[in-house]
Amino acid sequence: MFRHVPVLLAETLEHLAPREGETFVDCTAGLGGHAAAVAARLGTAGRAVLSDADGGNLAAAVARVREVSGPAEVVPIHGNFADLPRALAERGVRADMVLADLGFASSQMDDAARGLSFQRDGPLDMRFDPTSPVTAEELVATLPEAELARLIGEFGEERHAARIARKLVAARGAEPISTTARLAHLVRQAVPASPVGIDPSTRTFQALRIAVNDELGSLHSLLASITRAAAGSGAPFLAAGARVAMISFHSLEDRPIKHTFAGLVHEGRAEHLTRRPVTPGHAEVAANPRSRSAKLRVIRLLF
Length: 303
Ligand SMILES: C[S@@+](CC[C@H](N)C(=O)[O-])C[C@H]1O[C@@H](n2cnc3c(N)ncnc32)[C@H](O)[C@@H]1O
Description:
Mean pLDDT: 96
Low-confidence stretches: none
Number of strands: 7
Largest sheet: 7 strands, mixed
Oligomer: single chain
Distance between the termini: 43 Å
Radius of gyration: 20 Å
Bound molecules: S-adenosylmethionine
CATH superfamily of the largest domain: Vaccinia Virus protein VP39
CATH class of the largest domain: Alpha Beta
Strand content: 5-15%
Helix content: 40-55%
Strand order of the largest sheet: 3-2-1-4-5-7-6
Shape: globular
Number of domains: 2
CATH architecture of the largest domain: 3-Layer(aba) Sandwich
């Protein structure tokens, strides 16, 4: 059984402040850690809508939420959260609370077959949704060198991106790069070892994962839908006074969230429930190292 420890759980509950009878929408249900805790506070009249790109995770989250004595209505929606606002509006759902806990779940990282980890040899896949069309292997095999370098530089914030791209393009001419171990080995050959002990392939893996799953495009789309809904246009999927919480794990994610939330506050369409981003304390980071870069931001819409 794979485990995933929910990040900033107490803080998320504190700021979302679920009330009985409300509708909770989890855009990234994962293994249902946050969702089960919120659902337990909704009472039987509440409703939990759970969504995830990963059908296996979604099924696990639904099972976990059904175990708590919470909402009678648990609605699973499989797919990318970029498409969720429209799916909710079509079902007539208006969310009182929305949560997006971005990135990957430990279940995915720990499963060698998903190809997300440089520490476990597996197929170079990286898709959160195994039914989506493009794998990391295909990107590495087909992108022109300049595009590969741009992607690794931008999404991995990797200053050796050009060198890495050159190495990968030379290597793929000899033999396809189809495993995580081979990719990690090639990146380590291309760049100098990091003095702080971080594996040199970390940033390249992050970049490919972000690209394969269109993580930033999906986030921008969700944020744009929230902005439109707050202005009374676009898909109406938010209830009056809805709280929106987002947990990000790197600056490429945090920046657009921060700007979108600040823009809504500036326009008088929302108020900050977290004036500064909430970050985990020492105890949480010690118990769950994955939480170390987490930032939680929460707003309440003012319509
Ligand atoms: C950090 S985990 C969520 C963990 C969850 N909060 C819990 O407590 O178990 C992130 C989840 O979001 C999903 N995900 C990432 N990007 C997504 C997207 N654009 N659309 C839908 N799901 C996405 C991943 O498949 C993963 O299951």
